[in-house]
Amino acid sequence: MSVHAALARPVFRTPSGRHAKPRPAWPRVAGRAVFLLSALFCVAAVAGFGWPPVLLVVPAAAVVLLVAAVAKLRAASRKIDTIFAEELSEESGDPVDQASA
User: Fold this and answer.
1) Dihedral sign (CA 59, 62, 68, 69)
2) Which of 10, 50, 89, 90 is the most buried (most CB within 10 A)?
3) pTM for the structure as a whole
4) What are the Cα distances from residue 35, in Å, to 38, 46, 49?
5) Which helix (H) or strand (E) holds 49?
6) Which helix (H) or strand (E) element contains residue 9?
7) CA 66 to chain centre
8) What share of the chain is helix, strand, coil (3-state, %, to 5)?
9) CA distance 76 to 4
10) 19, 101 Cβ separation under 8 angstroms
């Protein structure tokens, strides 16, 4: 992809502010439903098989680690996108200035 094509492509960010459109709620609702169903399944499995309740720590820790990893990856992706956009804007300004001079 050329520098000009990359600059023409918008950088998607989460809109914030007074006039930002609200994001759809269905992904959050679906994620919470899946989480609650998996939690109920784990509790039922532990209670049904007579396992010690301390085994519930393992699935809970896995969910916490997954959420933390996704959040960190999204933050890192935003930072990389910002740095890449800044570099592209700096690079695209040089050839245009030299060509017009």
Assistant:
1) negative
2) 89
3) 0.45
4) 5, 17, 21
5) helix 26-49
6) none
7) 12
8) 75, 0, 25
9) 24
10) no
Question: Of 98, 97, 93, 100, which is closest to residue 3 (Cα–Cα)?
Answer: 93
Judging by beta carbons within 10 Å of its beta carbon (0-12, 13-18, 19+), is residue 99 exposed, middle or buried? exposed
**Which among 17-21, 70-74, 93-97 has the top mean pLDDT?**
70-74
Burial letters 36-70, b for 16+ CB under 10 A, else e = eeeeeebeeebeeeeeeeeebeebeeeeeeeeeee
Tens digit of each residue's pLDDT (9 = 90 or more) over 43-65: 898 899 998 988 888 878 888 89
Please give the helix or strand (H or E) that residue 19 lies within, else none. none
Query: Two tokens at 39?
Result: 């939690």
Cα distance between residue 26 and residue 34, in whole Å = 12
Both tokens of residue 22?
């609200």
